[in-house]
Write a structure and sequence with these properties.
By secondary structure, this protein is an alpha/beta fold. The chain contains 34 helices and 23 strands.
């Protein structure tokens, strides 16, 4: 059978691409060249390039069907793909052709690419990892597809008012977002609420029926995911919620319009916003509804797609793998069982074998309090049939535990899916582990701590189910697109194949001491810093100079990520400069970026502290030539793409034993920033890869932190008494120095770090952190020693490509050929 799909209409030829752009301007945008602006060109280029992506998507789909390949489905609450046009141009091999075509049309490609708004479909590392893995699956030729939610507003837009974070809606999804293809023929039906009744089937068997439910429809929207070279194009399928009927016309005709559309409004609220505040009951209910909604849509779609080309579900586990990204989609265990048992009449034992064989679970946290739990009463209200199934799963599982450890009631209590609290809670991580064949961590230390601490009971029961898959990032976006200067340098010195084989960067090791290459490398860094300075000036009105050392701390604002520790160290350096007259070896710019969760008041206060300290330092004539503190608002992928290449020093300072992995640490390293960090998450593997001598290490180890806490010997007051410099820093926060108009503003913060129960032991690591930072600054002042280390960081980061990560998933978990 021949492929009926026509070949792509636009080869990588500037003249042909220009003609396609002109065609779109004329017939879709309805303008002639005399009226065209940059936004029009963005729309026209997007549509022209989408044609190519869709052609390749259909070709890939046909190939997968012909070969009946095993398919991978990646379920994630978040995806952060970043701007789509530039990435697709790069991966399709059209970037240079597009640059030339736009030049002919009198425009610059960089101006056109800036017109795109970031899809606000994720919060941070979790969503960005998901996007990297989809990119790598397509690049590796894997039939791998993402499933998630088509949030109308997504994560909030961060605005800073008087130093405080203020959340604004981010209406990213507009009529000009051309990358989605709506699939009305694949609408999924999701049931919520109701009750369960027992009925008798034709064979006299008692079968539960889920009745009196509310119905929500899931409308799928597909975004092409283009692999490098364009041979394989998969899709990310995102669901929008809608009611199953527009509104009740009878009520409408009686004049009560608002009541008539009430169901419609409630249904469509499900996919309005990413992560509603789950403190109130209504927020928790919406959050659980979101998680079930997209998971149910995905599983229904996967089963329907499978049965279109297979006569029954007997080979389902041979042809399908489903990866659950964190605990958000782990309701998939109960939902897949429900579909197999209730909808397809498969016996429990066979359905359970299929479920376990198909599902895999990726854990992303080491903190027990971050493992998702749902109150049983809420769960019973929204998903009564699933609650029955979970109870049955748990009953069978606890029998297995009792068989292995007879009479060990405490172990059974620890391992049970149901936590016997008031009210009872469903431990979603336990459900995921029990209902899947694989549980993986995302960094070597993380996976070991899962096995030895957080999930030790389960590891003892099923050691073969636990494995590690260290995260990775795609070099296409994080070097090729984000850092074109470095990309071009690598092309010249290594060859162009590094972009799909990052281990080829090892060839740079021999050039680390080459003066000519060092000069080229430094030129790339200076250009990246100059670009950052222009953006900071134009968007924030702050005049920054590239002569400063750029010290960057960019990630979600959270106490465990310890932006607070960084600020304490900056205050220490400032006081040393203005009171002790100790001038640093080089001037430094401290750049922060990240969002705090709307309900996380402590994190919001950290943002306020950064701004307050920055305002004082930046306006102090004694300090401003040596120190600058800048908070870059509304951190997102497109900001990371200019901020990361500009960094000289990468702050990865979470308390050891708290960060699962991190991916920002990898992006910084492969762009030539040296890392200052703890032995936490993937920092350990980065340090091993680049060499301990090319990494600024400080702080307690995970074992030392645990020992401090377990023995209750952490003594902040003793640390302060032994360290006058730390005492001075805290006194400055208690004074009016950084809050002249609001005395006492930071007292709670000081009380927090002085608390013996501070879980992130800020003061235990502060002295060590200051020492490591002094070492880094002193080294930066010696370019002959600094530059070779930055080159070696780039050369030795091949392991941290998401292509390697995906190959390991494919080999060990998904069992692909």
């Amino acid at each position: 059978m021949t492929n009926p799909v026509v070949q792509s209409v636009i080869p990588p030829n500037p003249a042909d691409l220009e003609a396609a752009i002109r065609y779109r301007l004329h017939y879709t945008i309805a303008k002639d060249m005399s009226d065209v602006n940059t936004e029009d060109l963005f729309h026209a280029v997007s549509l022209a390039v989408k044609d190519v992506a869709v052609d390749r998507l259909l070709e890939s789909r046909h190939r997968f069907r012909e070969e009946d390949v095993k398919r991978v489905y990646y379920l994630s609450m978040e995806f952060l793909p970043g701007r789509t046009l530039g990435n697709n141009l790069l991966n399709l091999g059209l970037y240079e052709a597009c640059r030339q075509a736009l030049q002919t049309l009198g425009s610059d490609i960089n101006d056109v690419l800036k017109e795109e708004h970031d899809p606000a479909l994720g919060n941070g590392g979790l969503g960005r990892l998901a996007a990297c893995l989809l990119d790598s699956m397509a690049t590796e030729g894997i039939a791998g597809f993402g499933y998630g939610i088509n949030y109308q507003f997504g994560l909030f837009r961060q605005v800073i008012e008087n130093g405080w974070q203020v959340e604004k809606p981010d209406r990213w999804l507009s009529d000009s977002f051309y990358w989605q293809v709506t699939r009305p023929e694949r609408i999924a039906t999701v049931l919520i609420g109701g009750r369960v009744v027992d009925t008798q089937d034709m064979h006299g068997q008692i079968r539960p029926r889920w009745v009196d439910t509310q119905t929500i429809q899931g409308v799928p929207h597909d975004m092409p995911v283009v692999g490098y070279g364009g041979k394989t194009v998969n899709f990310l399928r995102l669901y929008s919620a809608q009611t199953s009927h527009d509104f009740d016309m009878q009520i409408f005709n009686h004049g009560d319009y608002l009541k008539a559309v009430e169901d419609k409004i409630k249904s469509e609220t499900v996919t309005r916003v990413l992560y509603p505040n789950d403190v109130p009951e209504s927020g928790r209910q919406l959050r659980l509804t979101q998680e079930y909604f997209f998971t149910a849509c995905a599983l229904s779609d996967i089963l329907i797609g499978f049965l279109r080309f297979h006569k029954d579900l007997s080979t389902f586990a041979d042809k399908v793998s489903i990866q659950m990204n964190d605990t958000h989609p782990t309701i998939a265990v109960a939902e897949l069982m429900r579909l197999l048992i209730d909808e397809h009449q498969i016996a429990w034992d066979e359905a359970w074998r299929t479920t376990v064989a198909v599902l895999g679970y990726t854990n992303h946290t080491l903190m027990g309090e971050a493992l998702e739990r749902w109150p049983v009463p809420l769960f019973e209200k929204l998903l009564p049939r699933h609650m029955q199934i979970i109870y049955q799963i748990n009953e069978r599982f606890l029998k297995e535990v009792d068989k292995r450890w007879p009479g060990d009631l405490d172990r059974m209590r620890r391992m049970s899916i149901i936590e016997e609290s008031n009210p009872k809670q469903i431990r979603m991580a336990h459900l995921a582990i029990i209902g899947s064949h694989s549980t993986n961590g995302v960094a070597s230390l993380h996976s070991e701590l899962l096995k030895q601490r957080l999930l030790h009971d389960f590891f003892e029961l099923w050691p073969e189910r636990f494995n590690n898959k260290t995260n990775g990032v795609t070099p296409r976006r994080w070097i090729g697109l984000a850092n074109p200067g470095l990309s071009q340098l690598l092309d010249r010195r290594v060859g162009k194949d590094w972009i799909t084989d990052l281990d080829q960067l090892r060839a740079l090791e021999g050039l680390a001491q080459d003066k000519g290459f060092q000069d080229e490398f430094l030129k790339v860094k200076k250009e990246a810093k100059a670009r950052a300075c222009r953006i900071v000036r134009d968007q924030m009105g702050f005049f920054l100079t590239g002569d400063f050392l750029f010290d960057v701390h960019a990630k979600r604002i959270h106490l465990y990520k310890r932006q607070l520790l960084n600020v304490l160290r900056i205050i220490h350096d400032y006081l040393r400069l203005v009171e002790d007259r100790v001038t640093p070896p080089v001037p430094q710019a401290f750049l922060f970026a990240g969002k705090a969760a709307p309900g996380y008041q402590a994190a919001k206060q950290v943002i306020k502290l950064i701004h307050s300290v920055g305002q004082v330092i930046n306006q102090d004539p004694r300090a401003r030539d040596w120190m600058s503190v800048i908070f870059v608002p509304d951190y997102r992928v497109s900001i990371a793409e200019w901020l990361i290449p500009a960094a000289d020093l990468s702050e990865q300072i979470s308390t050891a034993g708290t960060e699962a992995s991190g991916t920002g640490n990898m992006k910084f390293a492969m762009n030539g920033a040296l890392t200052i960090g703890t032995l936490d998450g993937a920092n350990i593997e980065i340090r091993e890869a680049v060499g301990p001598e090319n990494f600024f290490l400080f702080g307690l180890t995970a074992d030392e932190v645990q020992s401090l806490q377990a023995r209750h010997v952490y003594d902040p007051e003793g640390i302060i008494a032994r360290n006058p410099a730390i005492h001075r820093v805290l006194e400055s926060l208690l004074s009016k120095r950084f809050c002249a108009n609001d005395p006492g503003l930071f007292q709670d913060m000081v009380r927090y770090v002085m608390d013996r129960n501070d879980p992130f032991v800020h003061l235990a690591d502060l002295k060590s952190y200051c020492r490591a930072h002094d070492e880094a600054v002193a080294l930066y002042a010696k370019p002959a020693e600094w530059v070779p280390k930055t080159i070696l960081n780039v050369a030795r980061t091949g392991f941290f490509s998401s292509d390697r990560t995906v190959r390991e998933y494919a080999r060990d978990i998904w069992k692909l050929r």
